[in-house]
Write a structure and sequence with these properties.
mainly alpha
Amino acid sequence: MKLKFTRKTWYFLLLASAAASMLNGFAVLSGTSFGLIEQIAFAAAGIAALFLAAEKGSASWEKRNFTGVFVLLMVSYMINGWAGYLCSALAWPLLLSTESVSYTHLTLPSAAWPSSASCSWWVPPKRSTCSSC
């Protein structure tokens, strides 16, 4: 049996790591800490970013951005204090910007957009300027 890892696999791993990180954040707010879950989430995000950078057929700018996310995550792990938190916080917007740029070419066909006649209910009526009306 051969395992086939696609972009969807790595995106799921990123989503799961974000969910685990949020779970740890809620645990910290409640007074406990799941340090192991946070470490697993961090490792999963780094592995997913690295494998997305190594995927065949990706554009060079995508590979560069995914490698940048991985480097930021590793730097944030090595640096303690506010600088580490800052590097860790910058990794997610970089990842989001990489994905939002790569899918800007996707548009809905014109038939999928509602016509202006069917959306006339949300257009506010014109107010009369006549004071005697």
